[in-house]
Design brief:
The chain has a five-stranded mixed sheet. The chain is an alpha/beta fold and about 140 residues long. It is globular and about 35 Å long. Helix content is about 35%, strand content about 20%. It has helices spanning about 20-35, 40-50, 110-120, 125-130, 135-140, and strands spanning about 10-15, 55, 60, 75-90, 95-105. Helix 1 (about 20-35) runs antiparallel to helix 2. It is built from five helices and five strands; from the N terminus they run βααββββααα.
Length: about 140
């Protein structure tokens, strides 16, 4: 797969207080609207989340569907929602600010994850994420800039 091209069009900033369920629903709807996944992918994302925490670290979570729902993926891509107030993500009290919805046909999501890993492991990522004002700010962080 060629390098996935993220643009500011793939990113939304959503203010206010939201639950994890609302966040997963919202990112899934953005993916459905963009033609990345079929309608039943939302449930697959909820199912996946009950199996394993999709929190990556440093304020970033990557909800995605269960592997048995791969046929619900129309094309590989991602959508990103940024919640300035953060979302209580799991029992470990992890707070997610950046929600990255991933749709991957085969193992393409591994390439996407590799791209994101730099952002996830950089020490100053969380501070930078909390200081985001624009979609451009977030794009720069995710691109490892």
């Amino acid at each position: 797969m060629s390098h996935l091209k993220l643009t500011t069009n793939d990113i939304s900033i959503i203010s206010g207080s939201h639950s994890k369920q609302e966040a997963i629903q919202s990112i899934s709807e953005a993916m459905i609207k963009a033609g990345l996944v079929k309608d039943d992918y939302t449930q697959a994302m909820f199912d996946r989340d009950t199996q394993i925490s999709t929190f990556l670290g440093n304020g970033i979570a990557i909800p995605h569907g269960t592997t048995d729902k791969r046929d619900s993926v129309i094309k590989t891509g991602l959508k990103i929602n940024y919640y300035p107030e953060g979302i209580y993500w799991d029992e470990d009290n992890n707070i997610a600010y950046v929600i990255i919805g991933i749709a991957a046909k085969n193992n393409e999501h591994l390439d996407i994850l590799r791209q994101l890993t730099r952002a996830v492991i950089a020490e100053d990522t969380l501070e930078r994420i909390k200081a985001i004002n624009t979609t451009e700010d977030l794009l720069k962080i995710l691109q490892g800039g």
